[in-house]
Amino acid sequence: MSSQVVTRFAPSPTGFLHIGGARTALFNWLYARGRGGKFLLRIEDTDRERSTPEATAAILQGLDWLGLDHDGEVISQFENAARHVEVAQQLLAEGKAYKCFATQDEIQAFRDAARAEGKSTLYRSPWRDADPATHPNAPYVVRIKAPQGGETVIRDQVQGDVTIRNDQLDDMVLLRSDGTPVYMLAVVVDDHDMGVTHVIRGDDHLNNAARQMMIYDAMGWDVPVWAHIPLIHGPDGKKLSKRHGALGVDEYQKMGYPAAGMRNYLARLGWSHGDDEFFTDAQAKEWFDLGGIGKSPARFDFKKLENLSGQHIAASDDAALLHELQAFLAATDQPALSDDKIVVLRKAMYCLKTGAKTFPQLIEKAEFALADRPIEPDAKAAKNLDDVSRSILMELTPHLQNASWSRNDLEGIANQFAESRDMKFGKFAAPLRAALAGRTATPSVFDMMLVLGREETIARLTDAAG
């Protein structure tokens, strides 16, 4: 087996990128990237009825937003069908597989009789050891010869050793009667041909591993390292479904979570590194291992996601954050920020980043910087602009004309002004907020003044006092 780690993500393109699929992709990406390996992408599009180009595009878009880059071209399973058939034919030629002419009715009759007698309904084909000379000229499927005695042990990095008695395994179909390969065969051939060393996937595939190992063994191929990860449950402990909220990764982008926060949260969903909750991509790549994955299902928790997202927004580089903010606006069909607004936002970023857990919250905080004069206060803020407050603003404005426009100077002027009127600064902070932002929840009034600058600040105060 190659010494380089090769992982893969192999979704079926039947819809959006599910949150569970996104976590599987992330685990594969982290494992490969942390070891200088390769992370490959294969689209399992053999189900022609349900596979659509739109779904493939949605999956690629979801991975792109999450920042999970893959190596090489995207591989289509359907396009490899001829290779899958070739392997089945090789097994047939080597006597490791056989042609089975049993009809659906015969198989059903066998199962019904076995059920009535309380016996195993696992189908045993009478054609397994039949003389080819007795083969009829009729449709057939190709079945692999399953081992008939002993046990198959799946050595799993998450679940431990899982033992399955071989008499529980049927002679699995490899090629259908129309000559098309089944999914189980396609997966094994593709993984082998792509050089996949580690198969990290949902534990709903655990039983498939024993059946897929029959093909690896029959072909004399190295079996990859298995790691079957538990599924994600909702907060109530039931399998994650629509009633728990958003299932598609695209919806989380539209809700305004930053990709770094989403990566951090998904990595922590079912995997842990000591007590570490918040970590960077570099740390995740360095720390991620299969031993840290828990055996029981993880529960999705929106509060944790919000908390981590807030920490990632606060820790983000300003330019990167603005870039992602523009992408959020595009994803939610909102107008892009103009160059002028970007300049102001870049100046304001230091006082916007803390406390905002999502991009909508960041935009809400940035309203003072994005709004144009005249500022229209909302109903709550308007209450803070009564006649008394307006006259206070009118009196304060001349004091700001010659300020040096540093935080110290502005705070000094405000406090002096409050003292001279025998009142607390807090008394006129609310009217200042209303005048500068038209909102009651904003960054500090001094931060807003510094970002807006002298001219704009005085113009807004004058408007409000008028």
From TrEMBL:
Domain Glutamyl/glutaminyl-tRNA synthetase class Ib catalytic positions = 4-306
* Keyword Membrane among UniProt keywords: no
Domain Aminoacyl-tRNA synthetase class I anticodon-binding intervals:
325-464
Entry keyword set: Aminoacyl-tRNA synthetase, ATP-binding, Cytoplasm, Ligase, Nucleotide-binding, Protein biosynthesis
What does the entry list as the binding residues for ATP?
A: K242
Give the main EC class. Answer: ligase
Q: Where in the cell is it found?
A: Cytoplasm
Please list the GO terms describing molecular function.
glutamate-tRNA ligase activity
Known catalytic reactions? tRNA(Glu) + L-glutamate + ATP = L-glutamyl-tRNA(Glu) + AMP + diphosphate
Name of one Pfam family that matches: Anticodon_2
Q: Where is this motif: 'HIGH' region?
A: 11-21
Q: Motif 'KMSKS' region: which ranges?
A: 239-243
How it assembles, according to the record, is:
Monomer.
Its job: Catalyzes the attachment of glutamate to tRNA(Glu) in a two-step reaction: glutamate is first activated by ATP to form Glu-AMP and then transferred to the acceptor end of tRNA(Glu).
What family does this belong to? Answer: Belongs to the class-I aminoacyl-tRNA synthetase family. Glutamate--tRNA ligase type 1 subfamily.
HAMAP family (alphabetical): Glu_tRNA_synth_type1 (MF_00022)
NCBIfam families per record: gltX_bact
Q: Which PANTHER family match?
A: GLUTAMATE--TRNA LIGASE, GLUTAMATE--TRNA LIGASE, MITOCHONDRIAL-RELATED
List the protein's name.
Answer: Glutamate--tRNA ligase
Protein's organism: Thalassovita aquimarina
Phylogenetic classification of the source organism: Bacteria, Pseudomonadati, Pseudomonadota, Alphaproteobacteria, Rhodobacterales
Gene name tied to this protein: gltX
